[in-house]
Write a structure and sequence with these properties.
393 residues, two-stranded antiparallel ribbon, 15 helices, 2 strands
């Protein structure tokens, strides 16, 4: 049911649910591919772990660059849905092209295009979710969206696992367009847009307004953690080291995404009740446990599923809470710009983190790479505790 907050009428959770279904079908499409893509790039296209790290780091950087551009632009035009539609459309067209690649540079180009689409839609979509519900229910709203989003991420790898024996990996890439097209139809015909204030100032002026003292300190502490936060590809690569075969990799990825479905909504509700920052600290602790497991767990396939579940739990909590946390520090009409600044930081840190992690993995071994991330995550936890204590004072 729609609510009013500060005299502004909200679209309500129905709009969030519709956006969640858009993300669900899009993630079915995306995760059909991503569940097998890391091993496909390394084993079929001949890339090294260092190259995989470069691909993922650069792809994340492109993703976040476009989040910045779209975030600033959505505040300038006072609209959300047009940019959301452009982003989903670009990704839907790009992903099936993996079926045509013959080398890792070609796969790199397709991956960049897909991530540009994701970046274009993300900041306006997050602003639209925030616009749709009251601030006091932001955690629940983002948690609900995250759970629906990740339900698609569970179904996608399962579809890939079932389809690969019949149509092969490249056939899965082609079929991924079907759920992506369904997502576009839901977005066009059922998701409602909001009309906010059109910002008259320049993008630089908006950024300066957003960067208040407390928000800057938050970004610093988030960055300390993020500089060692590798992405899911290395969990799948570690699964291979633990004895998981290439055709079974989608099952490991499905377990990772099951964790995000189960934990995303409860984490958001808990954050609304006890505070977002303490719940975010829990996610950092779970990531630390995942990295420690990567160092010490012996080579047995079961442990691949354990690491995947831990990593998925970390993603569910951190991405839900951090996205809900951003509007607490800025004015409502600058949400898009605030998300743009936030994603700029995360994008830069992602490029650094994945590049360093991949380099260490290739040259010194997986255990050394996980040690690096364990140290940075521990540092991030300490920094966040300091921020929580300072904010309470």
């Amino acid at each position: 049911m729609a609510k009013k907050e500060n005299g502004e009428r909200r679209l309500g959770f129905r709009n969030v649910v519709r956006l969640g279904y858009v993300s669900l079908f899009t993630d079915v499409s995306t995760e059909m591919i991503l569940g097998v893509l890391p091993l496909f790039i390394v084993r079929d296209l001949g890339a090294t772990a260092a190259i995989l790290g470069l691909i993922e780091g650069a792809s994340d950087a492109v993703n976040y660059i476009f989040r910045v551009i779209a975030g600033v632009l959505t505040d300038k035009i006072g609209r959300r849905k047009p940019l959301v539609l452009v982003g989903y459309g670009l990704s839907s067209i790009a992903k099936p092209l993996f079926a045509l690649v013959g080398s890792w540079p070609q796969a790199f180009a397709v991956r960049l295009t897909d991530r540009a689409g994701k970046g274009t839609r993300t900041s306006p979509r997050d602003a639209l979710i925030s616009d749709s519900v009251a601030k006091s229910e932001a955690g629940k709203g983002f948690g609900l969206h995250r759970s629906l989003d990740q339900l698609g991420a569970v179904l996608g790898p399962l579809f890939a696992f079932a389809a690969i024996p019949f149509i092969g990996i490249r056939g899965v890439f082609w079929v991924s367009f079907i759920p992506a097209a369904i997502a576009l139809l839901i977005l066009v015909f059922f998701v409602k847009d909001t009309r906010g204030k059109v910002r008259q100032g320049t993008a630089l002026q908006n950024v300066r307004t957003v960067l208040n003292r407390e928000f800057v300190f938050l970004l610093v502490f988030l960055g300390i953690f993020a500089i060692g936060a590798y992405n899911f590809s290395f969990i799948l690569l570690e699964a291979g080291s633990l004895g998981i075969q290439e055709n079974d990799a989608p099952l490991v990825y499905a377990v990772l995404n099951v964790a995000t479905v189960l934990i995303g909504l409860p984490a958001g509700i808990l954050a609304d009740r006890v505070g977002k920052l303490p719940v975010l600290l829990v996610s950092y602790l779970v990531f630390f446990a995942t990295s420690t497991g990567g160092i010490f767990l012996p080579g047995f396939p079961f442990y691949a599923f354990l690491l995947a579940f831990l990593f998925g739990s970390y993603l569910a909590i951190s991405e839900t809470v951090q996205r809900a946390l951003i509007p607490d520090f800025i004015r409502p009409e600058l949400k898009g710009t605030a998300y743009a600044v936030y994603y700029t930081l995360i994008g830069i840190c992602s490029l650094v983190a994945n590049s360093i992690f991949g380099f260490l993995w290739t040259n010194s071994g997986a255990a050394v790479a996980f040690q690096y991330s364990a140290v940075t995550s521990a540092s991030g936890m300490i920094a966040l505790v300091i921020f929580i204590a300072a904010k309470r004072k």
